[in-house]
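Researcher: I'd like a candidate sequence for this fold, 122 residues long. If you have to choose between options at a position, lean toward the conservative one.
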């Protein structure tokens, strides 16, 4: 499946089965409480081999909701979403920092996140 590859729409390629692997590890004082690794081919995001990780250096101090919002954010990247939004003003789970939870209480995907997924996977 190819999404419309213009500036306003991410490019995605999906040949059937996705494999999203989730893991945890202590990646030290990196400034990131989670990260996602994926493959691009020919300028397209390839949604078949994606890995997401929680950085326990930070997330060990988070409550359950804190860890869940990081993982939801990383799954958004695994599906092809980038960072978006403004703090607490309809803030999406794809807001770039965990302030989405610690300041605004956002744990789950919001309408902006759903709209982004629907644009990539019509």
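Model: Candidate sequence:
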């Amino acid at each position: 499946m190819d999404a419309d590859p213009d500036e306003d729409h991410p490019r995605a390629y999906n040949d059937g089965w996705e494999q999203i692997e989730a893991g945890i590890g202590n990646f030290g004082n990196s400034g990131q409480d989670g990260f996602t690794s994926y493959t691009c081919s020919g300028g397209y995001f390839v949604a078949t081999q994606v890995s997401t990780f929680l950085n326990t250096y930070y997330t060990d101090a988070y409550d359950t909701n804190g860890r869940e919002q990081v993982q939801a954010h990383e799954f958004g990247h695994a599906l092809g979403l980038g960072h978006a939004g403004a703090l607490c003003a309809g803030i999406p789970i794809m807001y770039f920092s965990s302030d989405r939870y610690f300041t605004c209480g956002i744990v789950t995907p919001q309408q902006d996140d759903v709209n982004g997924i629907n644009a990539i996977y019509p």
